[in-house]
Amino acid sequence: MAVQAVALALPLLDTSMPMLLLSTVCGGATAIGLTALMLTRARDLAGDAASGVWRVSRLLLAALSFWGGQRLCALHVNHGLQASAPEFAAHCARFCSARGVPYAALQVQIGVARGQSMEEQARHARYLALADLARQQGCSAVLLAQHGDDQVESLLLALLRGAGPRGLAAMPARLQRHAVLFARPLLECGSAELRSWLSAQGVAFMRDPMNTDPAFRRSRIRAELLPVIAQLEPAYRQTLGRSATLCAAADRQLQSRAAEEIRRCAQPGGLDLGALRATGAVRLSEVLRLWLRLHGQRLDRARTEELVRQVLRTGQGAQRLQLQLPHGAVRRQGGLLVFEPKQASGTRT
């Protein structure tokens, strides 16, 4: 199953181009460690991920089996959020060493950002690290290891926070972030299937304690809600996944229209404020959120409404326009709306 899943994902990508296939550790938001794996052969560069948890180890073994005989290297991302992080890094090092995979580690700093959770900050730092590595290696794609249960949990979390079509689409099979293509080939695989595969292969793995920590909503959904849903609907993974797919289709229509507006408003260095105001308040909200997502930023509802208000006020004589974000700021420069990013920090070991 795991080898097949990796193989089926490859047609989504242009395999004539160099590829970097990387993986998150545990559902993305609460991940602590991450190992990014590069798989190289004469004409293609592909990669997979190695980490101290079962999914990533499985993906690495699947890549080794599928791509057999390739030269690999691995990167472990440590967010420094739990005491056991060194144990995860050590497991990654042993796992890679036993298979002849060169190994490196990256420590990222998670600061305190107003209005953003620790999980969101860790996710942002992780994506930056993955994208930086992909660009440094001249690669065109990153594969992530989230599976079907992660997808269901993401959908339920979105429902509980009252999300719209984009949130209810949960995790897309493919997305563009930091100018790098990310893909998730395992969204139709369940965690039980993957654990069974690992057991059959005799692969030792570590368990992330944050996965069972009731302080996290996702952990409680996994432990308390999913077993009940499974009794009501054994095929819940497929049915809820179908709902996410339908919401994703609806969101693509909205995003397509927003992208057209961005192209219409685009100027060298930013977006034309006059053209933005002409889109109207309702569509402007989607336009601004998409524009900032293209810069790797996520806007919550409150910040979106505030930015829309400030943009519209520029048509009433207001000169000042500024919105501080966790990883940058939106400002006015003459007649343009511009985004100024912060510099990411990290130390390789």
SSE topology:
Elements: H1 2-9, E1 33-40, E2 45-46, H2 54-67, E3 71-78, H3 85-98, E4 103-108, H4 118-136, E5 141-143, H5 148-160, H6 165-168, E6 174-177, E7 180-183, H7 191-201, H8 217-232, H9 236-265, E8 266-267, E9 270-272, H10 273-277, H11 281-294, H12 301-313, E10 322-325, E11 328-333, E12 336-341, E13 346-348
Parallel strand pairs: 3-4, 5-7
Antiparallel strand pairs: 1-2, 1-3, 4-13, 6-7, 8-9, 9-12, 10-11, 11-12
Helix pairs in contact: 1-2, 2-7, 5-8, 5-9, 9-11, 11-12
Structural write-up:
The chain is globular. Residues 1-72 and 345-349 have low confidence and may be disordered. Helices cover 46% and strands 17% of the residues. The two termini are 34 Å apart. It is an alpha+beta fold and 349 residues long. Strand 1 (33-40) and strand 2 form a beta hairpin. It has helices at 2-9, 54-67, 85-98, 118-136, 148-160, 165-168, 191-201, 217-232, 236-265, 273-277, 281-294, 301-313, and strands at 33-40, 45-46, 71-78, 103-108, 141-143, 174-177, 180-183, 266-267, 270-272, 322-325, 328-333, 336-341, 346-348. The protein folds into two domains: 2-232, 3-Layer(aba) Sandwich (Rossmann fold); 268-341, no CATH class.
